[in-house]
Amino acid sequence: MRIIICGAGQVGSHATEVLASADNDITVIDTDPDRLRAIADTLDVATFCGNCVDAQVLREAGAGQADLVVTVTDRDEVNMLAATIAKAVGAAKTIARVHHGAFISQRGFDYQQHLSIDRLICPEYATAMVIASKLRNPAALAIESFGQGTIQMQQFPVSSDAPAIGKPLAELKLPEGTRLAAITRQRQAFIPIATSTVEKDDTVVLVGNATAFPEARKLFHDDKLGRRRIVLMGGSPMAVWLCRSLRNRNFSIRLFETDRERAAELADKLDWITVIHADPTDRSIFEEEHIGQADVFGALRTDDEDNIIASVLAKSMGVTLVIAVLQSANYLDLVYHIGVDLAFSPSLVAADEILATLDESPLQKMSSLTDGVVDAFRVRVGRESEVIEKPLREVKLTPNWIVAAIRRGDRAWVPSAEDKVEAGDTVLVIGRAGMEKQLKKLFAAE
Question: Which residues pair with 46 in a beta bridge?
């Protein structure tokens, strides 16, 4: 595959390394010859020095014949403009990196569609969603990328006093936008039907729209564990997205920011958390604010050294779970050796998103559940599928499968029994392992 990467910074360099290792034909464009030289010295890729918003530069670099152009400079406007120009000169597919939330939220305006860009990615937003998923439930399944954070899926035990025990699902009346996807009982997993019940000591897989998920979870699990204390360092956009994702989820959040104006802005914007104008890397501040008693410490500054130092201090002072965000993916292995519990790199997340965009296979296993007995699949619905235009209640899916979510364009949701699947939709199907061939046939996956 012929790929053009515009931008040789942290994200661009890591994306180049990942894509080049898959035997793609890569050309990197940047205005800085030193950055290009560093890449060319370590990787077997072509480089082109120039401005990626110049149509002639893109043409000369081969964008007109490219299968994919990825724009990952540090400026949103440059990335979007370069991506739309690349598409205009003939690139088959384009991906643009953005930082600003307005570009990916699409509230009131769809930048992606208007500019003819195939995918907008925001590594910082995606990283925040991954961290939020880990904090909401340690057993949270890595599935939320299907709905870009709008869908949750978790696997957890049924509490002994859960309201759902002994009631058929048809009578349970789960909140709209939620579904019970699987039940494991005495090490045997199965896809539930309307008459199925859950029992004490069962383990369930629950999927739902993010807004409805907490209410549905209460039917199966007692969450009376008290509020978890979270301390975040750095008022970055990533911190803002993380705070919003954790709102009203039994978390008490304190955010430390050293810039006074930014701290005031965040206090106004995030009025459900406590914003403190101080530096937690200062040991006296750390002790004065009793940060060592926190359940979670997250180092979210853009400076890797600050994040590493703060993470080591937090772990040494007794914080249970320490999370570090590192701009350089090369540091990820290192920090685990010095006590950090979880580490994430936006550049690595960006590379994963690019690879996911390149994966055009009609059926892909996304996760293995219930000890490998049940799997989650992403399936693209073909034009000849027998399920098209039928209410899901009329489609014979159980006992093998359940349609847990539907993605149509930029919208993703957990369907009701009356929802219909259309050709071109992508569906999240949960079902028995080893039945991929039959699943592909049912949905005419193409």
Answer: 27
Cis peptide before 399 (omega within 30 of 0): yes
Count of CB atoms situated within 10 Å of the CB of 23: 9
Better pLDDT: 331 or 427: 427
Interatomic CA distance for residues 239 and 267, integer angstroms: 12
Q: DSSP labels for 93-117?
A: -EEEE---HHHHH-SS--HHHHTT-
Confidence category of residue 199, pLDDT binned at 50, 70, 90: very high
What tokens appear for 327 in the block? 């701009």
Q: What is the pLDDT of residues 146-182, one digit of tens each?
A: 776 678 888 889 998 899 999 999 899 899 999 999 9
Strand-pairing partners, residue 441, are: none
pLDDT single digits (tens) 330-364: 888 888 888 899 999 998 888 888 887 777 788 88
260 assigned to some structural domain:
yes
Q: Are residue 70 and residue 150 in the same domain, yes or no?
A: no
Q: Are strands 411-413 and 401-408 parallel, antiparallel or unpaired?
A: antiparallel
Give residue 375's domain range.
360-442
pLDDT tens-digit readout, 202-225: 999 999 988 888 889 889 987 665
171 lies in the same domain as 105:
no
Contacts for 175 with CB less than 8 Å, ≥ 6 apart: 208, 212, 215, 216
Same domain for 188 and 262? no
Residue 81, SS3 per DSSP: helix
3-state helix, strand, coil in the chain (%, to 5): 35, 25, 40
E strands, 194-279, in order: 203-209, 228-233, 251-256, 274-276
Strand order in the sheet with 94-97: 46-49, 25-30, 2-6, 68-71, 94-97, 119-121
**Rounded Cα gap, residues 238 and 347, in angstroms:** 13
pTM: 0.77
Residue 401 vs residues 145, 196, 380: alpha-carbon distances, Å: 21, 15, 15
